[in-house]
Each structure stands twice: as structure tokens, then as C-alpha cells.
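Troubleshooting log. The previous structure file for this entry was overwritten by mistake, so regenerating from the original sequence record. Sequence copied from the archived sheet and checked twice against the printout by T.R.
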Amino acid sequence: MKMIIFATGNKDKMREIREILSDALVEIRSMEEIGFYEEIEENGTTFIENATIKAKAVAQFTQKKEELKQAIVLADDSGLEIDYLNKEPGVYSHRWLGNRTYTQAMTDLIEQMHDVPEEKRSARFVCSIAAVLPNGECLSVLETVEGKVAHEISGENGFGYDPFFYVESFGCTTAQLTREQKNEISHRGKALRAMKERLMPYLNASD
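Regenerated output below.
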């Protein structure tokens, strides 16, 4: 069975990834599950650059391990773009938190946009996924989901900024969606499916 290593230690992300790729017939491990614990400096200026930096860092590690040399390494970089704030926090979505929790950050954003009219509350989640193949070839995809900054925090099913990202087609935040609904429309779900299509020739190739 082919192996995919995802360059994250985030358990929520790993759960989503395993659910979305459940039909790919591959073994999926996190970087921690293969013994990679190093901090990776994400100093890119775009989502694709940061995802590629992470994937290459973990791929260098796998090439030193005989049992991991044929693994595909995937990494994502994702974030929230708010149009009213000139697409901030963008690639700095996690670092933008500082010492705050996500709840505190969302509360601050909602207060900051208290008087912003509905038509100017547009926002999107962005996700880029990069892949490094065993031969060193790099692939990347980028997907988005459009929404709005909600007026209040709602829902407990998501993580990160999900509780205040309002999706008009469902009439709720992404934290109020079921796992199946979120996986279907989310930026990460769309990016993973797009990457899976790119990887199918390799996954289907005989050893």
C-alpha cells in the first residue's frame, strides 16, 4: 500500500484529511507519527510557498529513512482572507493570533467589523496543498470557499475561525455544518480532492 505523510501535527486536520481521502486506499500518517518534530519556519509570502516549504522539509527527512523513501509528502497552508481588511490576516492567520485564543481573535474581529454593512463583509478560506513525490517532483493546488464574516460566533463542530465564517448557501457558519457538509465545501476538502486527482497516476502505478 502506498503511503502519504501529511506535514501537520494538528489532530483536527488529520481527522479531516483521513475522512476526505478515505477512498484513496493509502496509508496516511502525520509527521509526528513518523518521528518528525522539528519546527518548520514558514517564511513564504503566499499559501503555495508556505505549503511547499513544509512539504520539502518533511520530504528531506523521509529520504533519510529507508522505510519512508517511497512515501508522498503533503503539506497545506491555509488561512482567512477578509476583503474589508485588505485580505488580512491571510497567510499570517495563525501568527496573527499572537497570544490570543481563536475565540478572542474572532471576538476582536467581530467588534472591529461591528458597523461594516453586509455587502462589505465578504471573506474566504484559502487552502494550498503541496506534494513532494519520491522522485523529488513538486505539485501544488489552491482552492477557496467564499463566505462572510458573521455577526456572532456560532457552532461547535469546526476549529480555527470556523465559528464566525458564514456560508450563505447553508445559512450558517462552517462550525455549524456536519463533518460531511464541511468536507464537501471546505477549502481543505476541495484542495485535497484536487490533489488526489493529481496524484492518482502515481497511486495507481504498480511498484
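The first helix runs from residue 11 to 20. Archived copy saved in two places this time.
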